[in-house]
Amino acid sequence: MDYYYSLISPPCQSAILVAKKLGITLNLKKTNVHDPVERDALTKLNPQHTIPTLVDNGHVVWESYAIVTYLVEVYGKDDTLYPKDPKVRSVVNQRLFFDIGTLYKQIIDIIHLVVKKEQPTDEQMEKLKKAMDLLEHFLTERSYAAADHLTVADICLLGSVTALNWLKYDLEPFPHIKGWVARVTGEIPDYAEFRKDVEEATKAYVASKK
């Protein structure tokens, strides 16, 4: 399976981590969508020329949540990561929508400002805190974000929360989130090595913007 991605992108990270958890190998293809040649090549597969994009035996899937759920449904030995029970799955889906529409949105908007050496407004920081408060609340109800075990919701939310490293955001006020991060990363094979690669790629990207 070919996987077009950028390592510094939290949505791109999600499918890599899900693949690790499933024990499957992705043919990783680093892609710069700002490069005209690479963008044109990607557009032939995905008319929106967005990453991540997955090509599995000619079948093309893009959007990170579509990719992670596809991987689990096709290659998962069971439905643990994306439960088929409608009630449990509805919570998993809600957490995914919460991530992309609320938590990740607040984080990435602020990161874009910081990369441009601009300061976020007090209102933006307050919206981020409210999103973090919600995740903290979810994690007071159970040990994982959506079920009593690891699901794709945890893995996708993990990418958003660890992206806060860009902002040097203090997690001390969120003890349940801190514990959850340790719990989730402990269940993903080779996560420490993966995280090291992400941090190195992030530093290189930031240096290129100076």
TrEMBL record:
Lineage start: Eukaryota, Metazoa, Ecdysozoa, Arthropoda, Hexapoda
Subunit structure, as described in the record: Homodimer.
BP terms from Gene Ontology:
glutathione metabolic process
**Catalysed transformations (reactions):** RX + glutathione = an S-substituted glutathione + a halide anion + H(+)
GO MF terms, alphabetically ordered: glutathione transferase activity
**Which domain of life does this protein belong to?**
Eukaryota
Could you identify this protein by its name?
glutathione transferase
The membrane-spanning stretches of this chain are none
Q: Read off the Pfam families from this record.
A: GST_C, GST_N_3
Q: What is its EC number?
A: 2.5.1.18
Q: Where is the GST C-terminal domain?
A: 85-204
- Similarity comment: Belongs to the GST superfamily. Theta family.
What species is this protein from? Anopheles coluzzii
Q: Which UniProt keywords apply?
A: Transferase
